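in:
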């Protein structure tokens, strides 16, 4: 981050003050481009730390001040577009949640317990079973998905992370052939007419609650005792289908924005490499 006024920081924050030869934002972009180097230098297994000596050993090439400002202006414009795209995606997510509240947050929708909603199983594999260039998605408790050569499931399902170091869980949706880690919950709906989009959203809204209720110290995990206490709203199949169609249309917009975001992020990476090597 960049600070332009007086401030204080704790002993684990490295404060870098540029001299008159270098623009502050230029220096910030330069340091950001060195993040992989700093991650490799981080010297603690649990909480990675990079110290003053590591910073001091980073070699940098400084162009003249006017050129620095020119580079900063170009990178700022790219970052502005990235921020806009992320904001658009967030607004669409909020629109879906708003529609859910308007349609279903009332006493007319009955509440069902977990066991009345989901058939629950887990994967059988270790988390390192992924295969680069595999044929099928492999779901673990990580945010990203991986690949594998063999599938164990061929269905429509929600994938709920069952453990996480910080208790920050994730829900994914998939339809087709896939495989899963042994601590990933594979959830199929009891009623084949129900909407997976509806229940994915309801699960996502409960993730913060699950973070607080999860067990463990070094690794936080979810048990069936915790999950079985959760309740879900069950509107009519007709209302579920209407909501699913609405989500489908929003997801199309999100897909296009996400594609644009990824393209501009590639441009940003290209420019950073061009300017900072």
């Amino acid at each position: 981050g960049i600070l332009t006024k007086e401030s204080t920081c704790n002993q684990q924050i490295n404060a870098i003050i540029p001299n008159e030869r270098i623009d502050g934002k230029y220096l910030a972009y330069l340091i950001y481009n060195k993040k992989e180097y700093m991650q490799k230098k981080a010297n603690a297994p649990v909480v990675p730390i990079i110290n003053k000596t590591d910073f001091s050993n980073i070699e940098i090439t400084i162009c003249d001040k006017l050129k620095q400002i020119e580079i900063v202006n170009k990178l700022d414009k790219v970052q502005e577009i990235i921020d806009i795209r992320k904001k658009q995606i967030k607004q669409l997510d909020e629109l879906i949640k708003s529609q859910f509240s308007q349609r279903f947050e009332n006493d007319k929708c009955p509440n069902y317990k977990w066991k009345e909603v989901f058939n629950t199983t887990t994967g059988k594999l270790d988390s390192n079973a992924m295969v680069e260039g595999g044929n099928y998605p492999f779901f673990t408790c990580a945010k990203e998905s991986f690949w594998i050569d063999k599938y164990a499931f061929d269905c429509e399902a929600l994938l709920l992370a069952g453990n996480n170091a910080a208790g920050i869980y994730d829900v994914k949706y998939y339809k087709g052939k896939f495989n899963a880690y042994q601590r990933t919950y594979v959830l199929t709906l009891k009623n084949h007419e129900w909407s997976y989009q509806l229940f994915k959203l309801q699960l996502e809204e409960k993730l913060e609650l699950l973070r607080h209720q999860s067990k463990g110290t070094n690794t936080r995990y979810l048990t069936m005792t915790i999950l079985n206490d959760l309740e879900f709203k069950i509107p009519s199949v007709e209302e579920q289908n209407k909501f699913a169609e609405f989500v489908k249309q929003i997801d199309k917009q999100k897909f296009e924005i996400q594609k644009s975001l990824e393209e501009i992020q590639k441009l940003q990476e290209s420019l950073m490499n061009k300017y900072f090597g």
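note: The beta strands are 111-113, 118-122, 136-139, 146-148, 153-161, 163-164, 171-180, 184-189, 220-221, 231-233.
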